[in-house]
Specification:
It contains six helices and six strands. It is an alpha/beta fold.
Length: 181
């Protein structure tokens, strides 16, 4: 069965994304890109742009599934809140188009791609280059991080414990009872 997986590395200055097409146990590279958000001064405009771009990618490529990197816990609470909003907006776009969403920790993604949960962004990009036959890797590695989320999802498909999956708002709210509609 063929399917298309969209992977997203959410961010408030750069959102990386990548798409793969899978057939049985083979992956085929489709797209690797990033959305630059630093030109938008307002955080609200950045979130709006993330939502619009995610919908645009979905409408153009019709992915069957969306894999997204979960925010990592850092010391700067404000940065983490902004990153969480960026992730939420990208997820909302997928849910709006009724695409199942799976969330992976950065460590899980790195482990799936390189075998090392503490691998560097460069190591992840290099492994993706080998796995998918990419001619070159971009200077900014946000795009390869997005692609890595898609590849991680492919490697972990069918493993219930590997990810959190949401098929719609009701499923998300059931797993997150403190959230309101």
């Amino acid at each position: 069965m063929e399917r298309i997986i969209l992977g997203i590395d959410p961010g408030t200055t750069v959102m990386g994304f990548g798409l793969i097409r899978t057939e049985k146990n083979k992956m085929h590279f489709l797209l690797l890109d990033e959305l630059l958000l630093h030109k938008y001064e307002s955080h609200s405009l950045r979130l709006k742009r993330i939502f619009e771009k995610t919908l645009s990618i979905i409408d153009e490529f019709h992915p069957d599934e969306l894999a997204i990197e979960a925010p990592f816990y850092g010391k700067n609470v404000q940065s983490m809140l902004k990153l969480g909003r960026a992730q939420g907006v990208a997820m909302a776009a997928g849910l709006y188009r009724e695409i199942p969403i799976s969330e992976y920790s950065p460590k899980k993604i790195k482990m799936s791609i390189t075998g090392n949960g503490n691998a560097s962004k460069e190591q992840v990009a290099g492994m993706l280059q080998n796995l998918l036959g990419l001619k070159e890797i971009p200077k900014r590695l946000d795009a390869t991080d997005g692609l890595a989320a898609a590849v991680c999802h492919f490697f972990n498909s069918g493993r219930e414990e590997a990810q959190k999956t949401y098929t719609g708002w009701d499923a998300f709210l059931k797993d997150n009872p403190n959230r309101k509609r």
